[in-house]
Amino acid sequence: MSRILDGKAAALAVRAEVAGRVRALRARGVVPGLAVVLVGDDAASQVYVRNKDRAAAEAGFEVRTLRRPASTSQAELLALIDELNRDLLVHGILVQLPLPKGLVPESVLERLDPAKDVDGLTARNVAALWRGEEGLVPCTPAGCIELLDRNGIAIEGKRVVVIGRSQLVGKPLAALFLARNATVTVAHSRSRDLAAIAREAEILVAAVGRAKLVRASWVRPGATVLDVGINRLEDGRLCGDVDFHEVLPVAGAITPVPGGIGPMTIAMLLANTARAAARRAGLAYDGLDAG
Length: 291
Ligand code: NAD
Hints:
Layout: E1 3-4, H1 7-27, E2 33-39, H2 43-58, E3 62-68, H3 74-86, E4 92-95, H4 105-110, H5 123-131, H6 139-150, E5 159-163, H7 170-179, E6 183-187, H8 194-199, E7 203-206, E8 224-227, E9 231-232, E10 238-239, H9 244-247, E11 253-254, H10 261-280
Parallel strand pairs: 1-11, 2-3, 2-4, 5-6, 5-7, 7-8, 8-11
Antiparallel strand pairs: 9-10
The chain binds nicotinamide-adenine-dinucleotide.
């Protein structure tokens, strides 16, 4: 029987540590501020933003949510980013994706001050990640690694397969696994014989956006399976990229959806924001009291 990796519990532990560090920052006169930019009325984004706002406020951050209509122009959005870049009360800026049609997400994200780019998507932070320099790491990939670490699942020397090569998840996650001395394969929509590639993995990550793509026959017995995908089934229920019930008896450990990587993503956003605030204040994040 495989172990279910409880992302909710791990995320709560991370959030409690972040709250401790936020208290330590406040005690030094630094009030960590997070600005969340939400353009348009995408229903899923509204829910994500509400959850992020609530979690950030609970951890002691000053949260500012800036809602703008779908008709917002690229120039208006860039002007808003410039304003937040200059605002000394803001340490982290999150632009909720996807942006409405007509806006160019790449240039909006690139406009962020890299020191406030808590999603780690600016060219500077991407380069820092691949070079092994200090920077801000995208939240979902960071959450995957944190969940493994907190469950005592070793990474070094392991054969890892990441399915999906997006800028947001697949690519940065591959960089993080490499930095931890795993042997990494990145598979994608054009990969041939995906099942055979997946079966080689001791740690298999699915970050695709296709419900139940990964079947039991794709999984090496005893492998750790991280399911990043969030898909909505016709009956309204959420479902990952992995056929959970089929894979459960084969895997050594597996994340559920919901309650796996999703909560970790929010927790890492908070950690990144506190890290950004500490860095601006010239303090070492890891040295702050987490209790
Ligand atoms: P994306 O659409 O940007 O990228 C999907 C990737 O999957 C692409 O690289 C593509 O090559 C690959 N792909 C597509 N079809 C494939 C197939 N049939 N076989 C193999 N590979 C295929 O998506 P993304 O932003 O990386 O997100 C992936 C999934 O993760 C989505 O379901 C998204 O909702 C979810 N997600 C979850 C969180 C979280 O917090 N849990 C965060 C971000 C994204």
